Amino acid sequence: MAESILELKNLCKYFGGVVAVDHLNITVEQGKIISIIGPNGAGKTTIFNLITGFVRPSSGKIFYDGKEINGLKPYVIAKMQIARTFQNVQIFPQMTVLENVMVGRHVRSRSGFIFSTLFPPVFRTEEKKIREDAMQFLDIVGISHFAKNTAGSLPLGNQRQLEIARALAVEPKLILLDEPASGLNTRETLNMGKLIEKIKKMKITVVLVEHDMELVMDISDKVNVVNFGRCIASGNPIEIQSDPDVIAAYLGG
Amino acid sequence: MGHRDYIGLIIMVVVVALIPRLIENDYYIGILVFTALNCLTCMGLCLLMGYAGQISLGHSAFFGLGAYATGILTVTLGWSPWAAMGAGACLAALVAVVVGVPSLRLKGHYLAMATLGFGAIVHIVFVAAVNLTGGPNGIAGIPHLHLFSFELSTDKSFFYFSWAAVILGLFFALNLIHSRVGRGLRAIHGSQDAAGSLGVNTARYKIQIFILSAVYASVAGSLYANFVNYIDPGPFDVMHSVLLVTMVAVGGMHNIWGALIGAVLLSILPEFLSALSDYFGGVGISYNPDYDMLIYGGILLAIMLFLPGGLFDGFRNLLRLSFNTMDNIKKRVFS
Description:
By secondary structure, chain A is an alpha/beta fold. Chain A is built from 10 helices and 10 strands. Chain B has a single domain, classed as ABC transporter involved in vitamin B12 uptake, BtuC. Helices cover about 75% and strands about 0% of the residues of chain B. Chain B is globular.
C-alpha cells in the first residue's frame, strides 16, 4: 500500500444540533485520485472545509504528511501545500485571468508590505517571475489565451479551469476539488476528467467531491461513500458500484 | 505599475507645475491645497475601500489625530513640525491597530461600525479635553513647515509641497496595488475564502492596509495644521468622514485614480456653487452653503444608482463605447 498523505481520524463536526460529520475515518494515499461521494447534505463540503481550516473540527484529528493540522488557519494550511477549489466557483471576478493565477503564487513569493510600497514593480525581479510562472499554469489547464480577460467575464467551464490553475499555482502536494464538473456539459466534463488525470501525473494527490458518477468511476483510484457524515463504504469503483449500502443510500432504501 | 499609471503621474506633475501660472489668486491656491489634503486622505481610504473592501466611517478622526498631534507637539512641547508629523503618523497607526484588530478579524462590515463610533469619540475628545486640545477654541500659532532651510510660508510654496506629497503618496499606493500584497488585497475583496485558501493572511492584510490608510489621513492632517496654523474640532467631525467616503465612492473606489478625481471634484464643488450663486445673485436666486450636504447626498445617490463604479468607470465605459461605435461605423463604411 502506498504511503498516506492525509488521514482523517474520528473527525466530528456539529453545527448546533446538526451533525455534519460524524466520527469519520478516511485515508488518502499519496499520488492517487480519491473520490468522496454521497447524497446532498452528506457533509462532503464540510469535510473539505475542515481539512482546509475554514471550520474547526468539534473533535477528532486531521493528519497531513504525519503532522496534525486541525485548527490551523486556512493561509497556514495553504503554505503546507494543500490547495482547493470551491463548489460555487470563487474566482476574483474583477481581476484578470492571469492576475487570478498570480494570486495563486502568493505562498511561492515573498515581497512584503513595506518593500512593495517603496519600489515600483519594474524594479522587482520577483514580479516578472510570478507573471511567467502564472502563465505556465494557465497553459497546463489550457486557457492561456484568456490571460488578459477579466475573470468574471469567462463562461462557467473556463472559470472552473481557472480555479484549478490558480490552485495548481500554489504547487500543492494535495489538491481538493469540490464538484469541478457541476454545471458543465458532457464535453466539458470529459475535458475536466482529462485535466484531473493530468494533475495526478504531476504527482499531486487529488481528493475529489463530485456528483457526476461517470466521471468519478472513470478516474478514481478509490471511492469513499459518505452519508449523514459517516463513511459507509470505501473501495475501488467496481466494489462501490455493487455495494448494497451504497445502493440503499442513493436509492433511499 | 502599468505604463498608463506612469503617464498619469507625469500628466499630474505637469498640471501641478502649471496651475500656479494660470491661477494667481491666493484664495483659489488655498482651496487647491485643501484639495490636495483631501486627495491624500482619499487615496488611503480608497486602498481600504476599493482594494480591501472595508469601509471606514472614521477617517476624519485620523485626519484630526494628525492635525492635533502636530498642533499639541509643536505649540505646547516645541517639537519640530516634521517630528510631530512622524509622531502623529505613529499615533494614528497605533490607534488603527487598536480599532482594527478586533473588527477586521471578523468577516463583514464591522470596521464601518467600529470606526463610526471611534470617529464620534475622537471628536468629543477634541472638544472636551480642553487642557490638551484647547477645546472649542482650538490651538493657534502652529508653525510653518521648513523644507531644509526654506520656510513653506506662502500659499504657493505649500501648494507645490502638498501636491508633491499627493504624487509621492500616489506613487507608493500604485506600487502597492501592483504587487504581491496588492493582488492579495484585491483577492480578499473578490473572495475572502478563496484568498485564504491560496495562502493570503487575510486578517493581517486588512489590518496592514487599514494602518496605511490611517497614516495617509494622519499625514494629511499634520499638513493641514501646518498650512492653516490654527486648528479647532470643527473639520474633524463624523460628517467629514462621510464626505471622504462620498468622494471615494463618487470618483470610483475600485481605482485609485477614481478616488483622486472624486476628491478633486467634491473639494472644488463648493467654490463652484458659490460662484454660480454670485452669478445668479443678480436675478434673485441665492445659494446657501448649508445646502452643500444636500447636494453631496444627491450626487452620491445618483452615482450609486446610475454609475456604481463611480465617475472613473463611467468615463472609461463611455470612451470604450464610443471607440466601439467608431469601429462599427468604420467596418460598415469600408466593407
